[in-house]
Amino acid sequence: MSELSGKVALVTGTAHGIGAAIAETLAGLGATVHGVDKDTVDVTDAARVTALVERIGQVDILVNNAGGVAGQVHSPIEEVSEDDWRAILDANLTSTFLCTRAVVPGMKAAGGGRIVNISSGAGRSVSLTGIQSYASAKAGQIGFTRQMAHELGQYGITVNCIAPGFVRSNPSTEKQWESYGEEGQRKLVEGIALRRLGTAQDIANGVKFFASSDASWITGQVISIDGGHSIF
């Protein structure tokens, strides 16, 4: 029997890249996976999130992967509008809150569950693109992870976080990579201890660990999966 046979997983942001790899990996371990993206369910809308979880029923594993930069690029702070600020906070942090709030009652009733939040190296340091709201939202996810681990541990629910390094996994990261030019790309890779960019599967492997029985006594932790970039 596979590790996650009989478990139900909800993964947000599965349109491509990291989210798609996470969904495929959990399914390969035997879980029934419900993947959603912004074109199927707006996970920044409380009513739609509630309806989604009611439709699914019991959720044993939640992976909050939805987010990104909402098509934005760096602007000086004095030029950042309230709407732009809120758009990124909602996509990354509010969605994490809403989805967590929706699945927790069922996890409590079941006597346990696993929640994994996908933050970013930007949440532990700075945004490479200089987007203030993105760095803030990703740091917020890390704080939310710790607070939820503290609150939910007594119910057998673990809450952990992954802070990925740079992964070319979607149109936004491809655009970012191209913007660096040959010299910038070289410098980025040289700033990674393992001298390579990450892949979506590298991040999915971290989720696989947190969802497994091997991580049953691990909660409130943030792991950087970045090839060693964060040690510099």
Q: In terms of topology, how is this protein built?
A:
Layout: E1 8-12, H1 17-28, E2 32-36, H2 46-56, E3 61-64, H3 82-110, E4 113-118, H4 132-152, E5 157-164, H5 171-190, H6 200-211, E6 222-225
Parallel strand pairs: 1-2, 1-3, 3-4, 4-5, 5-6
Helix pairs in contact: 1-6, 2-3, 3-4
Quick synopsis:
With 232 residues, this protein is α/β, with parallel strands linked by helices. The protein is built from 6 helices and 6 strands; from the N terminus they run βαβαβαβαβααβ. The protein has a 6-stranded parallel beta sheet, sandwiched between helices.
CATH-derived architecture? 3-Layer(aba) Sandwich
> What is the total domain count?
1
User: Order of strands in the sheet with the most strands?
Assistant: 2-1-3-4-5-6
Provide the gyration radius in Å.
17 Å
Structural class designation: alpha/beta
Total strand segments: 6
The proportion of strand residues reads: 5-15%
CATH fold label: Rossmann fold
Q: What's the helical proportion of residues?
A: 40-55%
Task: List unreliable stretches of 5+ residues.
Answer: none
3D structure, described in words:
- With 232 residues, the protein is α/β, with parallel strands linked by helices.
- It has one domain: NAD(P)-binding Rossmann-like Domain (Rossmann fold, 3-Layer(aba) Sandwich).
- Helix content is 45%, strand content 14%.
- Helix 3 links the parallel strand 3 and strand 4.
- Helix 1 packs across helix 6 and helix 3 runs parallel beside helix 4.
- The protein is globular, with a radius of gyration of 17 Å.
- The model has no long low-confidence stretch (mean pLDDT 96).
